[in-house]
TrEMBL record:
<keyword id="KW-1003">Cell membrane</keyword>
<comment type="similarity">
    <text>Belongs to the binding-protein-dependent transport system permease family.</text>
</comment>
<dbReference type="InterPro" id="IPR000515">
    <property type="entry name" value="MetI-like"/>
</dbReference>
<feature type="transmembrane region" description="Helical">
    <location>
        <begin position="29"/>
        <end position="52"/>
    </location>
</feature>
<keyword id="KW-0813">Transport</keyword>
<dbReference type="Pfam" id="PF00528">
    <property type="entry name" value="BPD_transp_1"/>
</dbReference>
<keyword id="KW-0812">Transmembrane</keyword>
<dbReference type="GO" id="GO:0005886">
    <property type="term" value="C:plasma membrane"/>
</dbReference>
<protein>
    <submittedName>
        <fullName>ABC transporter permease</fullName>
    </submittedName>
</protein>
<feature type="region of interest" description="Disordered">
    <location>
        <begin position="1"/>
        <end position="24"/>
    </location>
</feature>
<keyword id="KW-1133">Transmembrane helix</keyword>
<feature type="transmembrane region" description="Helical">
    <location>
        <begin position="127"/>
        <end position="148"/>
    </location>
</feature>
<dbReference type="GO" id="GO:0055085">
    <property type="term" value="P:transmembrane transport"/>
</dbReference>
<feature type="transmembrane region" description="Helical">
    <location>
        <begin position="94"/>
        <end position="115"/>
    </location>
</feature>
<keyword id="KW-0472">Membrane</keyword>
<feature type="domain" description="ABC transmembrane type-1">
    <location>
        <begin position="90"/>
        <end position="305"/>
    </location>
</feature>
<dbReference type="InterPro" id="IPR051393">
    <property type="entry name" value="ABC_transporter_permease"/>
</dbReference>
Length: 317
């Protein structure tokens, strides 16, 4: 019996004219494929919680019965505007933000200017700048709470040793806000100093040489060469610090250990107020409304800083 075998003819290769469009489409789609994981994670953990929080803020939701939602529209927002504790938290957020951001950025700029020189052991000092930032918020705040203690605090002991009256750093309004601001300033000054240092090292050294040849002192070089060269970096740190001050939560919560921000809410921030509404009073809908107010406030502050920076750039031109 004869066995017959059939062989398939090889598949003809696609002509070059057909392969080129496929290669073009693949090369165009490749960047989107690389970016797809970011957008998937952003949609899952960023965009969806933001939109869901806005949805919850339009309902009456209690923590004990979180599955039961009653539509109330903008009632949660109108109640916020009528609540004096909300305005108190907003005012405290602004004052603590100013008390922590302004000294923090000024000291960071000065430290970066010193580290920009050829100092002995400057690598050690640069690493040491990040140590407060790497420290836990809880550990740092608890240590500062002990330092600012009314009866046995180190700071009041130093004041009494020179004949000054002790200060109640947790009950007095301005003193408690200064205490919370001190924790924030201590943690973030070194971080911003390293950002300024990176910006300073990008400024051409020829500008300093030209200024020195013209007889400019180091102080004038700092004012007329370093600061203008760091303007984009300074704007960036101002925006980031402003956003951080608006979201301030851990330091005031642990400073005395309650969500009320002191016995008279003297240093309660918007973050603490949101936490108190949601997890102390169980009003999740109102807490969601506070969260969206904070988000809109951050957007407005960022737009204001961007407008100021754009106007400054136009005037410089």
């Amino acid at each position: 019996m004869a066995i017959t075998t059939t062989t398939r003819s090889p598949r003809p290769a696609a002509p070059a004219a057909e392969r080129r469009p496929r290669a073009r489409r693949a090369s165009r789609a490749a960047p989107y494929g690389y970016l797809a994981p970011f957008f998937v994670l952003f949609a899952a953990f960023g965009l969806f919680p933001l939109l869901y929080t806005a949805y919850v803020s339009l309902h009456r939701v209690e923590l004990q019965t979180s599955q039961q939602m009653d539509w109330v529209g903008f009632q949660n927002y109108t109640r916020l505007l009528e609540d004096p504790f909300f305005w108190n938290a907003l005012r405290n957020t602004f004052t603590i933000g100013v008390l922590s951001t302004v000294p923090q950025l000024v000291m960071a700029l000065g430290l970066a200017h010193l580290l920009n020189y050829k100092l002995r052991g400057r690598t050690f000092f640069r690493v040491a700048m990040l140590m407060p930032y790497a420290t836990s918020v809880a550990a740092a705040t608890l240590v500062f709470a002990q330092l600012f203690g009314r009866d046995y605090g180190l700071l009041n002991w130093a004041l009494s040793s020179v004949g000054l009256n002790p200060v109640d750093w947790q009950a007095d309004t301005w003193a408690s806000q200064i205490g919370v601001s001190a924790v924030v300033t201590w943690r973030w000054t070194g971080y911003n100093a390293l950002i300024y240092l990176a910006g300073m090292q990008a400024i051409p050294h020829e500008l300093y040489e030209s200024a020195a040849m013209d007889g400019a002192s180091r102080w004038k070089q700092f004012l007329h060469v370093t600061v203008p060269g760091l303007r984009p970096t300074i704007i960036f740190t101002v925006v980031v610090s402003t956003i951080g001050a608006t979201q301030l939560f851990g330091e005031p919560l642990l400073y005395e250990g309650n969500a009320g921000g002191g016995i008279s809410h003297q240093y309660q921030t918007l973050g603490l107020y949101m936490y108190e509404q949601g997890w102390s009073f169980f009003h999740l809908g109102r807490a969601a409304a506070v969260a969206w107010v904070m988000f809109l406030l951050i957007v407005l502050l960022a737009l204001a800083n961007a407008a100021i920076a754009a106007r400054r750039n136009r005037t410089d031109r």
